[in-house]
């Protein structure tokens, strides 16, 4: 079914780039998303365990989202990618990142600089985490973990009109809401 075309109206509102908040769920914790025409999710994300998530706090102005479009034998393909920098190498951050690495596959919600929230990845097409450590060589270099969540999807990331409950407006280190009691 083709939807009727809509105009792209002029936007006279401020347009602020970057990602401002990030929440991740293990893909196995997210129930199947409703397939809706268009690009908005009208219902909240349904979870097996609402307490099983992590809010990731990162260096301000270090996070961004890209979603290039491509093609394969089945048609249009999207390649969403979120990149960010978690500052400092410390025992608690090393442990939190080790636990994220153990999960590997995620569904991610991010809020952008305009206050809009998108849901990236699905339980069947999740994002995969890659993480490294960079300490730099000079005292002025940044010390921290560059993280990336990337994957392949058949649809662009939808806006979610219901922001996940308690999604943080500001940054810290990692949340304590992450729970490893999932299947």
Please, how many domains?
1
Count of DSSP-assigned helices: 1
Quantity of strands, as a count: 12
Order of helices and strands: EEEEEEEHEEEEE
Low-pLDDT runs of 5+ residues are 170-176
Average of per-residue pLDDT values:
84
Please compute the radius of gyration using only Cα atoms. 17 Å
Biggest beta sheet attributes: 8 strands, antiparallel
Which percent range describes the beta-strand content?
25-35%
The coarse overall form would be globular
Q: What portion of residues is helical?
A: under 10%
- Kindly name the structural category: mainly beta
Alpha carbon gap, first and last residue: 37 Å
Keywords:
183 residues, mainly beta, eight-stranded antiparallel β-sheet, 12 strands, globular
In short:
The protein is 7% helix and 31% strand. It has 183 residues and is mainly beta.
Structure description:
- With about 180 residues, the protein is mostly beta strands.
- The chain has one helix at about 90-105, and strands at about 20-25, 40, 55, 65, 70, 75-80, 80-85, 105-110, 115-120, 125-130, 145-150, 160.
- The protein has one domain (about 20-160).
- It is built from 1 helix and 12 strands.
- A hairpin with a 4-residue loop joins strand 8 (about 105-110) and strand 9 (about 115-120).
């Amino acid at each position: 079914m083709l939807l009727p075309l809509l105009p792209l109206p002029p936007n006279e509102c401020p347009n602020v780039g970057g990602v401002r908040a990030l929440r991740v769920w293990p893909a196995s914790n997210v129930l199947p998303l409703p397939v809706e025409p268009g690009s908005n999710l009208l219902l909240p994300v349904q979870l097996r365990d609402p307490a099983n998530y992590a809010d990731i706090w990162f260096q301000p102005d270090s996070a961004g989202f890209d979603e290039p479009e491509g093609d394969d034998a089945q048609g249009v393909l999207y390649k969403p990618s979120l990149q960010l920098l978690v500052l400092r190498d410390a025992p608690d951050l090393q442990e939190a990142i080790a636990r994220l690495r153990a999960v590997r596959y995620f569904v991610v919600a991010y809020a952008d600089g305009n206050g809009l929230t998108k849901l990236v990845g699905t339980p069947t097409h999740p994002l995969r985490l890659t993480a490294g450590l960079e300490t730099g060589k000079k005292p002025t270099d940044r010390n921290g973990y560059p993280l990336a969540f990337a994957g392949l999807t058949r649809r662009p990331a939808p806006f979610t009109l219901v922001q996940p409950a308690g999604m943080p407006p500001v940054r810290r280190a990692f949340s304590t809401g992450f729970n490893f009691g999932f299947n």
